[in-house]
Design goal:
The complex is a heterodimer of chains A (432) and B (801). Chain A has 432 residues and is mainly beta. Chain A has three helices and 34 strands. A five-stranded antiparallel sheet of chain B has the order 10-11-12-14-13. A four-stranded antiparallel sheet of chain B has the order 5-33-32-31, with no helix packed on it. Classes of the chains: A mainly beta (432), B alpha+beta (801). Chain B: This is Ribosome biogenesis protein ERB1. Chain B: It comes from Dissophora globulifera.
Chain lengths: 432, 801
């Protein structure tokens, strides 16, 4: 403790929302030169954690992570060293550890984790792959004639399950698989888009899904499996049929088409808490909020860049968007103002093509970018918490998905990479 | 007074004896003062005293009566003091006056009665008035008669002798400073030894001699001093010749003088100040009288006087002096002042003489050794002609400054300097004082001109040869590229994924997407052919089908129409058809460029070698080919359709010509001023165009403005290969063999009066590696986003956002 007596001192009061790490809330004299590590040591000292039990902590002052020394922090903000500084400390998120990486035949353009089941990947080889948690490719679903750009789990129940996939061949296919007899079949084909499918989003109740396409349309479909094909007025149907010689699939028409975007719709996401609310972003630089029930474009928010990715956090209520620039933008969809970016996160070097909120934390966010990095962000911190290299070189990352403790990423290097992430669920500080 | 008396008594006998020489026959009334005192004294003291006093007076009257003084005194009394008695009476016996008339006779016994009788002599009638006046005056003053006497001389005794008048006695009591002395010597301030030989020491006021007082001998003096305890307090009065006993007041005065104090004890030098004007402001005015009228009525008199002056000024009789007018002083020139104090003021066109060179080290009296000339140098210098010498001196070393001799050339040099100054014409050089910053045109900051591409976003890798041409389809999703590896590739713009590869048999020089969104067609030039490709699976079935039919329709038409020998439309082979190629157009010469009309029906090709048929316009739907120009001037480099009007631009090596296709006439010829045009693009609005040239220039033409370039930009280090306008954003770009891509903000205003604004906003350096002296070969803008796609000799295509 001798070293703690040196230099200028600051009175700090440590508070926490994690009860298991609570220490008495009294002001402590600490050296101003201390950084996160030093403060973390103090907490561990007070908690009498030793050896293995020592935990790293992060320190929040006014809702912002301390990334400098206390003295620099105070000086930067012109704060007095006389006052008692209240510092909230939270257990640090442990760095994600790469678990494994699985080779595909082509670029991996879409990944999704089922919370209980396995992983789902879509690839540029027109196949949808199913993986179990042990990293075995259980099924390869062939049926698309274009690169699979979007995948979406519907149900996963042991060996059986249903899922959706959208591809550049303009079709969304609903699949049913059975691991036990290693069979799969297309339940129905959703037809209506005139350009490639970019994104699929399932609503909270699971009875509807939305697709965004490069033809600037958003179409809403039901998940019910129809008995017969809907009548679709398609001029090229006969010819296409003849040409591709596909087996007869049950065709499905959209129940609704939302058209307001003037460019490719690159991302759609449902609000998990309000089944009718849909968010979309597109190449027309807009982020739109839709009321699906009333087919109304509620609000439109504009920025200067193409929106590539979009995700909504039910905990923080914020939209995160990835753009054709290296900046992640956070929006509050509830505000009416058309161009208010609540926060920007900078750190990537190239387009951000994929964003995913942590399912359990209102602050955590992951993003994948063309610069070949997956970054984990805490919106309270200035920079990224962790930068994960997706693969060899700086190959583009096309898609990431963050489930509870698993983060999937797929990219140009034909790899689906799995990272083990600390599960934030159940932590008192994870939710705002 | 009582103290002086003994002395007087003692003096009296002597004075009577010595008073005889005074020859005053006439009896003049003695000094009233002294007499009055005597009367008073007589009343107080005994009769003896009184007689004594009178005796002195009598002695002066009558010389002869020496012995019987007292008797004479009695006799003369009646004559000598007729009035005095009366005066005395009035002064002393006031009460008796009231009884004068009654007891007139009885008063004979007294002096009073005598006076009365005399007055009766003067005039009985006046008597009563006099008495009355006396009586009345008694209340006011002591002596009314005395006032009469002073004022007018009264003739004495006889009226017939007017000359002889009896003047009134000088009464020094009133208004006289000598009133305190009874018998003052009047000689004045003279040396008293003049009177040493005389028995008297001067004269009193009446002209009578004042006798020297008797002076006792030393013994007497001594005795007297011994007797008189106050003798030490007495002073000798030389004028009077006697000792005067100093009074207490006089002693006090002396004491005060000795103490350097003001002699008068009563005098207060520090009296309280009596303010003449009080410093206090009175609350109430001194007078309650209202302000007099004259205070506020202007004076008529003054008005008159002023009017008089005014009239005089008007008539010019008075010339008012100008204020501050000072009569000029006469100027004198100091002829003899040859050395002027101040230098003369410089003339406007004065040019200062050039400064003389400052002395250098070798002109020092003790130059460093390396400056000293060697023997050879000295010899050389001496041998040299005087005018050829670089310096007209040789450096010399002296041990001390005092050893330095006078400079022999001084006069000569000074003379030459003067000659130089006098004969050499000096020219004023006008140095422009312009801030170079102000010459730079005011351009907006590139920051304000966003968006424009700044960084590499996507790379499209796969080509194995120079990528000659790139093109983005109207939807903005697909990128086509043609390369020297004899392939045409179609890429997904956002990901960089190569979706299709078309293998052709010749180098692909140009690929262009059909501009129509209804028809998906890609025109490629490949050797002598122009191919039309329908990319499969990329576009929706409807679009694909529509395009298919669109492309196919012409074959039916071409079968009927006559065949143009310069271009033959041909079906592709089945293998090619399977690839996606739908139509071939065979030309006679290698085709370098293909460009679409905005509607997507016509496209034009350039085959520079094909002389007059270099430019051909093809109609897709009819599979027809036209030769718009029977004769082309020069080698055609590029052609372009006007984006809105039926115009056609043809760029030859040096000129760009604008033709009207409907009227089939030349509209305009642009003098580019460059040596070899490499590329051409027309602004989407149609009024401006840019060209790039192999001599590194980029020229912007405003078609409405002039046939000369509006701006010529030389930013590239090497030949410009390609220029391109953005279809939506005010941007244009150029790429060159140096591998750089320049991005400009090129704003064209709707206002015809405002010239286009051109601002270089970004240089993308070394975008493409230089291979075989070729760098970036083609730039193309994304149709909807501010993204730039460039292709280069390094086999890559890059997208910048």
């Amino acid at each position: 403790m001798d070293s703690l007596e040196e230099g200028p001192q600051v009175q700090v009061k440590f508070v926490t929302r994690q009860r298991q790490f609570a220490i008495p809330e009294t002001a402590i004299q600490t050296p101003a030169r201390l950084r996160r590590y030093g403060l973390s040591q103090i907490i561990n000292l007070v908690l009498q954690n030793e050896g293995e039990k020592q935990r790293p902590f992060d320190f929040l002052i006014d809702g912002e992570f301390l990334r400098t020394s206390l003295a620099e922090y105070l000086e930067e903000r012109n704060l007095s060293t006389e006052n008692v500084l209240t510092i909230e400390y939270v257990e640090s998120m442990l760095p994600p550890t790469p678990l494994s990486s699985y080779e595909h035949d082509d670029w991996v353009s879409a990944v999704q984790v089922h919370r209980q089941g396995g992983f789902l990947t879509g690839s540029y080889d027109n196949h949808v792959r199913l993986w179990n948690r042990q990293g075995e490719c259980t099924q390869i679903l062939a049926g698309h004639t274009g690169a699979v750009k979007a995948v979406q789990w519907l149900t996963s129940d042991g060996d059986n399950g249903t899922l959706l996939s959208g591809a550049l061949d303009r079709s969304v296919l609903a699949w049913e698989y059975n691991h036990s007899d290693n069979s799969y079949s297309v339940l129905y084909e959703c037809r209506g888009h005139t350009a490639g499918i970019e994104s699929i989003a399932l609503n909270a109740t699971g009875d509807q899904f939305a697709t965004g396409s490069a033809d600037s349309m958003i179409k809403i479909w039901t998940t019910t499996v129809p008995k017969t094909s809907d009548h679709i007025e398609e001029v090229t149907e006969t010819r296409k049929r003849r040409k591709t010689a596909k087996d007869d699939r049950i065709l499905k028409a959209p129940i609704l088409t939302l058209s307001a975007h003037t460019g490719s719709v690159s991302a759609v996401v449902y609000n998990p808490t309000a089944a009718d609310t849909l968010y979309s972003g597109g190449w027309d630089h807009s982020v739109r909020v839709w009321d699906v029930e009333n087919h109304v474009n509620v609000t439109t928010k504009n920025c200067e860049k193409v929106v590539h990715a979009l995700d909504y956090s039910q905990h923080s209520g914020l939209l995160a968007t990835g753009h054709a620039d290296p900046v992640i933008r956070l929006w509050d969809p509830r505000t009416e103002d058309s161009s208010v970016v609540k926060q920007t996160l900078s750190g990537h070097q190239n387009w951000v093509t994929s964003v995913s909120w942590s399912p359990s934390s209102s602050y955590m966010l992951a993003s994948g970018s063309y610069d070949g990095l997956v970054k984990v962000w805490d919106i309270r911190a200035k920079g990224a918490l962790y930068s994960l290299s997706h693969g060899k070189g700086s190959k583009k990352v096309f898609s990431i998905d963050w489930s509870d403790d698993i983060m999937l990423s797929g990219g140009e290097d034909n790899q689906m990479k799995i990272h083990k992430v600390q599960d934030m669920s159940g932590r008192a500080d994870a939710l705002a | 007074m009582p103290t002086t008396r003994p002395t007087k008594k003692a003096v009296a006998p002597a004075s009577t004896a010595k008073a005889r020489p005074a020859a005053t026959k006439k009896t003049i009334a003695s000094e009233p003062k002294s007499r009055k005192r005597t009367v008073q004294e007589a009343q107080r003291d005994s009769d003896d005293d009184e007689f004594g006093d009178v005796a002195i007076d009598m002695a002066s009257d009558d010389e002869d009566m020496d012995g019987d003084v007292e008797d004479d005194d009695e006799d003369d009394e009646v004559d000598a003091f007729p009035e005095e008695e009366g005066q005395d009476m009035s002064a002393a016996d006031l009460e008796d006056d009231n009884d004068e008339e009654e007891d007139s006779e009885g008063s004979y016994m007294d002096g009073d009665s005598i006076v009365d009788s005399q007055e009766e002599n003067e005039g009985d009638e006046a008597e009563e008035d006099d008495i009355e006046s006396d009586f009345g005056d008694l209340e006011d003053d002591i002596d009314p008669n005395f006032g009469h006497n002073l004022n007018e001389p009264r003739p004495v005794e006889s009226d017939y002798n007017p000359i002889k008048r009896e003047y009134p006695e000088i009464d020094p009591e009133y208004d006289s400073d000598s009133s305190t002395e009874e018998n003052e010597n009047t000689v004045g301030n003279i040396p008293m030894h003049w009177y040493d030989d005389y028995p008297h020491i001067g004269y009193d006021i009446h002209g009578k001699k004042v006798m020297k007082p008797a002076t006792g001998d030393e013994l007497d003096k001594f005795l007297s001093t011994m007797d008189d305890p106050d003798s030490w307090l007495s002073a000798h009065n030389f004028k009077e010749g006697q000792d005067v006993k100093l009074t207490a007041e006089e002693l006090e005065i002396i004491r005060r003088l000795e103490g350097n104090r003001i002699p008068d004890a009563d005098y207060n030098p520090y009296e309280d100040q009596v303010e003449f004007f009080t410093s206090k402001t009175e609350i109430m005015p001194l007078s309650a009288a209202p302000e007099p009228k004259r205070r506020f009525i202007p004076s008529k008199h003054e008005a008159k006087r002023i009017m008089k002056i005014v009239r005089a000024i008007r008539e010019g009789r008075i010339v008012p002096r100008k204020s501050g007018h000072v009569p000029p002083k006469p100027k004198y020139y100091n002829l003899w002042n040859d050395a002027e104090d101040k230098p003369r003021e410089e003339h406007v066109m004065h040019i200062t003489a050039p400064k003389m060179k400052l002395p250098t080290h070798d002109e020092s009296y003790n130059p460093p050794a390396e400056y000293l000339p060697t023997e050879e140098e000295i010899k050389e210098w001496n041998d040299m002609d005087k005018e050829d010498r670089p310096k007209n001196y040789l450096p010399q070393k002296y041990n001390a400054l005092r050893n330095v001799p006078g400079y022999g050339q001084f006069i000569q040099e000074r003379f030459e300097r003067c000659l130089d100054l006098y004969l050499a014409p000096r020219v004023r050089k006008n140095r422009l004082n312009i801030d170079p910053e102000s010459l730079i045109p005011k351009l907006p900051s590139p920051r304000d001109l966003q968006p424009f591409p700044t960084r590499l976003a996507v790379e499209y890798l796969g080509h194995e040869g120079r990528v000659r041409s790139v093109s983005v389809d109207p939807s903005g999703l697909w990128l086509a590229s043609g390369s020297d590896d004899k392939t045409v590739r179609v890429w997904e713009v956002a990901t960089g994924r190569c979706m299709k590869t078309y293998h052709l048999d010749e180098l692909v020089t140009s690929v262009v997407w059909g501009p129509s969104k209804e028809v998906a067609v890609l025109a490629v030039t490949c050797g002598y052919k122009v191919g039309l490709i329908l990319p499969e699976k990329i576009f929706s079935p409807e679009l694909t089908l529509h395009s298919e039919e669109y492309l196919k329709a012409g074959f039916a038409n071409s079968a009927t129409s006559e065949v143009n020998p310069k271009a033959t439309w041909k079906q592709p082979t089945p293998a090619e058809f399977e690839q996606g190629i739908r139509v071939w157009v065979h030309l006679q010469k290698p085709v370098k460029q293909v460009t679409w009309h905005r509607k997507g029906d016509y496209f034009a090709t350039v085959a520079p070698d094909a002389n007059n048929s270099a430019v051909l316009i093809h109609q897709l739907t009819k599979h027809q080919t036209q030769q718009p120009f029977k004769k082309t001037k020069g080698a055609v480099q590029r052609v372009m359709f006007h984006p809105t009007k039926p115009m056609f631009f043809v760029a030859t090596q040096r000129y760009v010509r604008q033709y009207n296709l409907q009227r089939q006439e030349l509209v305009k010829t642009m003098m580019t001023g460059v040596k070899w045009i490499s590329s051409l693009d027309v602004h989407p609005a149609g009024d401006n165009l840019i060209i790039g040239s192999y001599d590194k220039r980029l020229c912007w033409f405003d078609l409405d403005l002039s046939s000369k370039p509006y701006k010529t930009l030389r930013y590239h280090q090497q030949a410009i290969r390609s220029v391109a306008y953005h279809k939506r954003y005010p941007l244009f770009a150029s790429c060159a063999d140096d591998g750089n891509v320049q991005i400009f903000h090129g704003m064209v205003y709707n206002d015809l009066l405002q010239n286009p604004l051109i601002v270089p906003v970004k240089i993308l350096k070394n975008v493409h590696e230089r291979i075989d002296a070729l760098g970036a070969l083609c730039v193309e803008w994304h149709p909807t986003q501010p993204w730039l796609i460039s292709s280069g000799a390094d086999h890559t295509i890059k997208l910048f956002s």
